[in-house]
Amino acid sequence: MFVGDFQGAPSILPHLIEKFDCILLSILKSTVAPCEAEAQCAAMVKAGKVYATATEDMDALTFGSPVLLRHMTFSEARKMPIQEFQLDSVLETMEMTRDEFIDLCILLGCDYCNSIKGVGPKRAIELMRQYKSLENIIENLDTKKYQVPENWPFKEARRLFIEPEITDPESIDLKWMDPDEEGLVKFLCGDRGFNEDRVRNGAKKLIKARSGTTQGRLDSFFSFSSTPNKRKVS
Length: 234
Description:
Layout: E1 2-3, H1 13-24, E2 31-32, H2 37-46, E3 53-54, H3 59-62, E4 67-70, E5 82-86, H4 87-94, H5 98-108, H6 121-131, H7 134-140, H8 154-162, H9 181-190, H10 196-210, E6 224-226
Parallel strand pairs: 1-2, 3-4, 5-6
Antiparallel strand pairs: 4-5
Helix pairs in contact: 1-9, 5-6, 5-8, 6-7, 9-10
Cofactor: Mg(2+)
Family: Belongs to the XPG/RAD2 endonuclease family. FEN1 subfamily.
Domain XPG-I: 23-96
């Protein structure tokens, strides 16, 4: 698990790190992203440290994560399969380079700057395919119909997606550990009201799984739906 930047709450960050590392997810090692969690996760996937970025935030693809998994934290009662997105397949399907895809995401609106009012998803794709970059789009855009935000910081947003602040993945050592059963019971049952029998049974299943001779695949625990390899987007 990757913990993001808790802005405005520095006093609780050490407490949260302790919970993640020692109690809540005592089966694995966590790390703190210096800025965007999705950017750090994307770097970890590219470095081969982990298989995929698990998040509901599609920005993980914009940061360059080769694989994105969504709905990992949804309850079984919702009956929703895990969605797997392959960045290469997304780019091939949309017939775009990664640089064009980043500009498209900025054009549609991102965390770092506003979008161009009146430009929706369909129009944004048309503009990107025709002009290939935000600079060319701005130069050729009908300003009577579409108003570009004043001092629009799209270049800064682009730089943040291409060169985000991250911790070097090679300096991060991920380790699987035996779950702290008593710590989990105290945290989840004593403080959060979870059923103790279910928590203990879950901890025992984790211990049993770790003691197995082979490592289970994700699709043995979840159902998956993947992005298609080739599909025209019009």
